[in-house]
Design goal:
single chain, 956 residues, alpha+beta, Beta-Lactamase, 5 domains, 31 helices, 49% helix, binds ligand LFPHGCPZ, Rev_trsase/Diguanyl_cyclase, transmembrane helix, PAS-like_dom_sf, transmembrane
């Protein structure tokens, strides 16, 4: 039970006041009682003496009634309780209580003391005594009847018994004492209150103040101070407390700082620090532990270790290990961690922590028990750090050792002076040197001598600067064989950055090199001719341009393809074609210098880079080389007992005149080659700017051609085909004309190839076919004479899958008999796919169309065609007709054609008959049909009708 000081003080003061009052009252009361008793006793003795003398006088003088009167008088006195006077016989003579008179004194019920009575009589003296409870005082005095001369023995005496009230007097005095005590009590209380007030201000209130300040201080307020206004012992105590508090605060602050420092150290430690209670409850969990385990401290503090972040299987395993290692009984659980620390030793082992995300982290764990002064364990401290890197290093080292010993690549480790420190098994196997032999020797034990001093100087310079070198190097085996390797050298530097080791790693690349060479051949060389292919050609041309540019030189590039190669290929098969290409490659290579590059770009296309040594290339030299090349290619090729003839066309571009880059040089040489092909005169051509202009005008034509059809710029002209013997018109050849609004008349020789290239030829061909048939239908209604229309089909048209259907649809549409249509094809148009051409032409012939071979003799003419193809007519090319008179060969060709045609029952039309003498010559050789300006130029349809009305031979 808590009693406040204030209350206790008040209680004590008031208690003390009451007690003092009470004690004073009791003491006063006793004193008063004694004093009153003494006074009354004295007074009683006095009264007894008076009574004795008075009553004995009454008796002596025989005035006994005086006794009764005196007794009666006494009874009125306030303190008289009783006055009895007895006679010598003991009977009551007088009494304050009349009823007693006459009674024997013993009979009276007043508790008289009989012994005192006897004694008073015997001794003749008065006697006084008080009642047991001090209620009254009895006094006895003898009352004798004789005078004083009478012997006492003979005297006859009674007794006067006088009882005085003590209580009255006592009460009267007590009343005063009580009043006095009340005053004392009140005074005491007032005094107590006063003391209490004084005490409150001087002590209680200040003690409470001290208490409150202390409470605030305990509550955490450190800047509070006890300020007491009176300078006394309490203020001394306050000062002492202030000082104490001050010191305590300072110590506490220091402690806090030290705690914070400790916590900061713990938190900033790279180690995970976890403290637990002796039972394994986590009490502290530092930042590193949070980082390592992914848990926040508040998630694990108060949780039981090891459940939180240990793998229970590992815990069980470690328990078993501890049992075996130390023979101690360890339960799987917290016990595993503390079994050794609880014996006062540090437990260290490798463990696996389980991160919050489930990751396993290998750690080095050490656990120490924390003992208090009594030697009891207060808890445990576990310090752990992540050893993943160490583990990885160990693994890496293990792997490195495995790799070192098991790799197929040779490894050599030297010290900084290039003394061999170690070599692996692969090194021994590749070089033949044993470990025992190699270790301690210099790194160049496998020196091949194949590289010069500069090579090694550059290599070591690079290693010194870049710590690394790799490249191809030749080494020598123990048996002396040298072999290529791909070597990598790395340096190992110490902490002071000085080289402490070199690591050389190489593999035997003999096979790789062979394969690479093979690959290079595949990549850079044409497999058929072994000449550089397009890739290598481009590289060399690039290099050539760079070199020529640097040295301010010129060089020539030749583009060439073979004439009639396709014919050979198609006629004799690919094997012959391939062999021809091989021989061409050989001849070309032999015809130029080694420093020149002869390349095959594909098919029958070859290029030659003439790496001119002189400062300025001599055009005459190039011409000479071109002629030489043409000449060697013109020589017959003997393949499989066949004498094959092919020619070549060469286009030449010169660096830097005709281009300063590969693309323009190639393009221009190619253009020149096509020009050479077109030109009958020379089989080589230097590129000239005009060729580009021609190319430009081709582009212009292409664009114009695309819109010509819808602009109605095409028309057909018709040239009659004449029976020379009677000058009658047998038919007309429909010839396409293109009248461009700005470019004027454009020859079909120019635009037909372009239309083929642009894919417009089928549309254009259909247009020609429709218009020619429409015209024929019209003529048929107006002209009675029977004649046919010859219509030209280009090679591309012949390849079209819809050709036959399209022609059939058109003849049906215009109701024309196919017998009246002569389809003219050239030899070259069937060459690309002769089988397809035969099939199509047979279909057309079966339908009823007539087939003519145009320009016969100019292409790869072959009697095979005449035999295989379903031909009705051969048209001898105008070049033969033109020069038949002057050129015997041409004349022979004309004759041969006429003879073959006759034997095969084919009609022959001589083209380009311009003169009468040509007509005569042809007629003389049996050629009965002609076409040419001698009879008529190609005319528009409107003028054709007149041809029937007047004599032919418009051109003389
Ligand atoms: N696929 C198609 N080819 C066509 C078509 N129209 C014409 N052509 C072919 O274009 C080439 C050039 O034709 P063209 O300029 O019309 O020349 C023809 C005649 O004008 C010309 N000729 C006729 N007689 C003489 C002569 O006495 N002397 C002389 N110098 N030239 C003459 O010959 C060309 C006809 O030759 P050919 O076709 O070989 O019978 C030409 O190859 C045409 O085939 C067409 O619609 N489609």
């Amino acid at each position: 039970m808590r009693i406040s000081l204030k209350f206790l003080l008040a209680l004590l003061l008031f208690g003390f006041a009451l007690l003092a009052t009470l004690v004073s009252f009791i003491i006063s009361k006793q004193q008063v009682t004694d004093r009153v008793t003494k006074t009354i006793t004295k007074q009683l003795l006095n009264d007894l003496n008076l009574i004795q003398s008075e009553f004995e006088r009454y008796i002596i003088y025989g005035q006994a009634e005086g006794i009764s009167q005196s007794v009666a008088a006494k009874s009125s006195e306030i303190d008289t309780l009783l006055l009895v006077v007895t006679s010598p016989n003991g009977k009551v003579r007088a009494s304050t209580s009349p009823v007693d008179i006459g009674k024997y004194w013993k009979q009276l019920n007043y508790e008289f003391n009989s012994k005192q009575y006897q004694r008073v009589l015997e001794k003749n003296t008065s006697s006084v005594w008080s009642s047991t409870e001090n209620q009254w005082i009895d006094g006895m005095v003898p009352i004798c009847q004789s005078n004083f001369q009478i012997s006492l023995r003979n005297q006859q005496c009674g007794v006067a018994i006088y009882r005085k009230d003590l209580t009255y007097k006592t009460n009267e005095v007590l009343q005063g004492i009580i009043t006095q005590s009340v005053y004392i009590g009140i005074g005491s209380i007032i005094g107590a209150i006063f003391i209490l007030i004084i005490t409150h201000y001087l002590i209680t209130e200040r003690v409470i103040k001290i208490k409150n300040i202390l409470i605030r201080w305990i509550g955490g307020e450190r800047d509070v101070q006890i300020q007491l206004n009176i300078n006394d012992e309490l203020s001394d105590i306050a000062s002492l407390i202030n000082e104490l508090v001050q010191r305590f605060s300072e110590e506490e602050e220091a402690l806090q700082r030290s705690e914070q420092l400790k916590q900061a150290i713990i938190n900033s430690a790279n180690y995970s620090i976890i403290a637990t209670s002796p039972e394994g409850i986590i009490t502290s969990f530092n930042k590193s532990a949070e980082y390592l385990l992914g848990f926040k401290a508040e998630e694990l503090v108060n949780k039981k270790n090891p459940e939180a972040f240990h793998d229970k299987h590992e815990v069980s395993r470690k328990a078993e290990e501890l049992k075996h290692r130390f023979g101690i009984d360890v339960q799987p659980g917290f016990d595993v961690f503390v079994a050794i620390p609880s014996m006062g030793e540090v437990y260290e082992d490798e463990w696996t922590y389980v991160h919050k995300n489930g990751d396993k982290i290998p750690v080095h764990l050490s656990i120490t028990a924390l003992f208090n002064e009594q030697g009891d364990i207060e808890g445990y401290l576990s310090i752990a750090y992540d050893i993943s890197a160490k583990k990885k290093n160990e693994r890496d080292l293990y792997l490195a050792e495995k790799v070192f010993n098991n790799t197929n690549e040779a490894i050599m480790i030297t010290d900084e002076n290039l003394n061999i420190v170690n070599i692996n098994q692969a090194y021994c196997s590749i070089t033949g040197f044993s470990k025992n032999y190699a270790i301690g020797k210099k790194a160049n034990i496998a020196y091949s001598g194949k590289h010069d001093k500069l090579f090694y100087e550059e290599m070591w310079q690079k290693i010194a600067h870049e710590n690394h070198w790799s490249g191809e190097i030749w080494n020598r085996r123990k048996d002396g064989e040298i072999f290529p390797t791909w070597l990598t050298i790395n340096t190992v530097r110490g902490k002071d950055n000085r080289i402490c080791n070199y690591i050389g790693l190489f593999k035997d690349i003999t096979q790789q090199k062979l394969a690479a060479e093979e690959l290079e051949k595949l990549a850079y060389y044409d497999q058929l001719t072994q000449l550089p292919n397009r890739v290598l050609f481009n590289e060399r041309l690039d290099r050539m341009i760079i070199q020529a540019n640097r040295e301010n030189k010129r060089f020539a590039l030749m583009y060439m393809d073979l004439n009639r190669f396709k014919y050979v290929n198609d006629t004799y098969g690919h094997e012959i074609g391939d062999e021809l290409l091989i021989q061409v490659a050989q001849r070309l290579t032999k015809s130029v210098r080694e420093s020149d590059t002869v390349a095959r770009l594909g098919g029958d296309e070859f290029t030659i880079i003439l790496s001119e040594q002189k400062e300025l290339i001599n055009l005459n030299d190039i011409t000479g080389i071109a002629n030489k090349l043409i000449n060697v290619i013109n020589q017959p090729f003997m393949i499989n007992n066949l004498n094959l003839y092919v020619g070549t066309s060469i286009g030449i571009s010169i660096y830097p005149n005709d281009g300063t880059d590969t693309s323009s040089l190639c393009k221009n040489a190619d253009t020149a080659m096509y020009k050479a092909k077109e030109s009958a005169a020379a089989n080589y051509k230097f590129f000239a700017e005009y060729m580009n202009k021609e190319n430009h005008s081709r582009l212009e034509l292409e664009s114009a051609l695309r819109s010509a059809m819808k602009n109605n710029e095409f028309s057909l002209h018709y040239q009659p085909i004449i029976n020379i013997t009677n000058q009658k018109i047998l038919g007309f050849e429909a010839l396409l004309r293109w009248q461009h609004p700005h470019l004027g008349n454009i020859s079909p020789e120019h635009f037909i190839p372009i239309a083929e290239d642009l894919g417009l030829i089928n549309e254009l061909g259909d247009w020609v076919f429709c218009h020619a048939l429409e015209q024929l239908r019209e003529w048929k209604t107006n002209i009675s004479q029977e004649f046919y229309i010859a219509i030209n089909l280009s090679a591309k048209q012949l390849q079209s899958n819809t050709l036959v259907t399209s022609l059939v649809n058109t003849i049906e549409e215009y109701q024309i008999n196919p017998q009246n249509i002569h389809i003219e094809i050239t030899e070259t148009s069937v060459i690309s796919d002769p089988e397809m051409a035969v099939k199509k032409l047979k279909k057309l012939r079966d339908i009823g169309f007539k087939i003519s071979i145009d320009d016969f003799g100019t292409g790869q003419s072959s009697l095979n065609y005449l035999k295989k193809f379903p031909i009705n007519t051969i048209k001898i090319d105008k070049t033969f007709v033109k020069s038949a008179e002057s050129d015997q060969v041409d004349m022979a060709i004309v004759k041969a054609v006429l003879s073959i045609a006759e034997s095969m029952d084919l009609a022959v039309v001589a083209e380009g008959v311009e003169t009468k003498s040509q007509e005569k010559l042809l007629l003389g050789e049996g050629c009965k049909i002609g076409q040419g300006y001698l009879y008529s130029k190609p005319l528009p349809a409107s003028q054709v009708k007149q041809l029937f009305n007047r004599k032919l031979r418009l051109v003389e």
